[in-house]
Amino acid sequence: MRIVDCHVHQSAEADAASVLKAMDANGVDRILVCSPKERVSLQYTREKLLLTKKLFDAAPERIGGLAWLEPTIPGIRGLAREALEEMGFAGIKLIPDHWYAYEQRLEPFWETLHELRASVLIHTGILYGNDDGSRFCKPLYLEKLLHYPNIRFAMAHISWPWCEECLAVMGRMRAAAGHDRTRWQSYVDLTRGTPPHVREQAVANAVSFCGPDRLMFGTDSRVPDGLAKQREHIELDLAIFAKLALAEADQERIMSGTADEVFPGKG
């Protein structure tokens, strides 16, 4: 089975050969790496994008990049365009960092991503960082993106603890698309956050309500730290899929097909 990890973080310079070796050990075919976080500086954001570009340029068929951008930084719209049109990033990574997605000040940023037909991985749910930032990360606020239908977005972590709100947003976006799956903007990133006592039910609910073609597998692993938890997460989720009696084609769709579709490779 092909496996794509849609949610890997980069914390420092990483050697592609070492990353590929760890992926091979874990049975992973492709990863999407979020560039290191930068909250205030356009210059440092660009430097961090270039760090990730160096990594995925060394193995573009197996490593893709997600450009982590802070929308409130002056000049960030031009860097978003550069990341997607020139640097080769597969998409954008966002964390609502003391801003709400519906704020008027963000509309120029959303307009740029709409023009670029960007695919975006957005943190939703509890946030163990960025000070007291969790309240900005409720999935309901992403209803704003109805006004930017060219943007495809995935809600990370099934939005835990707001898993049912995440599915409600999925239903809202599906209805807005007239139940036309080719126009439906939203996806769910199953990357953990959900603790063991709710994980199986949360995944089962997402499969039932959204369908496997709207779900993508991720681990929140890190490079250059060896992707240590990646294999464990693969095995845990495959065990859940087995309990749910998911067809092999549906499992493969979740484990690789959706991410490959939303964040296609450049190699």
Question: Can you put this structure into words, describing what you see?
Answer:
The protein has 267 residues and is of the alpha/beta class. The protein has a single domain, classed as Metal-dependent hydrolases (TIM Barrel), CATH 3.20.20.140. Helix content is 40%, strand content 15%. It has eight helices and nine strands. The protein has a nine-stranded parallel β-sheet with strand order 8-7-6-5-4-3-2-1-9. Strand 6, helix 5 and strand 7 form a beta-alpha-beta unit. Helix 2 runs parallel beside helix 3 and helix 5 runs parallel beside helix 6. The longest helix has 16 residues. The radius of gyration is 17 Å and the shape is globular. The model has no long low-confidence stretch (mean pLDDT 97).
Find the CATH topology.
TIM Barrel
Global geometry? globular
Radius of gyration: 17 Å
Poorly predicted runs? none
What is the level-2 CATH architecture name?
A: Alpha-Beta Barrel
Tally the beta strands.
9
Count of alpha/pi helices: 8
The helix/strand order is EHEHEHEHEEHEHEEHH
Largest sheet: 9 strands, parallel
Task: Kindly report how far apart the N and C termini lie.
Answer: 20 Å
What structural category arises from helix and sheet content?
alpha/beta
The CATH class designation is: Alpha Beta
Strand order of the largest sheet: 8-7-6-5-4-3-2-1-9
Q: How many independent structural domains?
A: 1
What is the arithmetic mean of pLDDT?
97
- Which percent band covers the strand fraction? 15-25%
CATH superfamily: Metal-dependent hydrolases
Task: Indicate the percent of residues in helices.
Answer: 40-55%
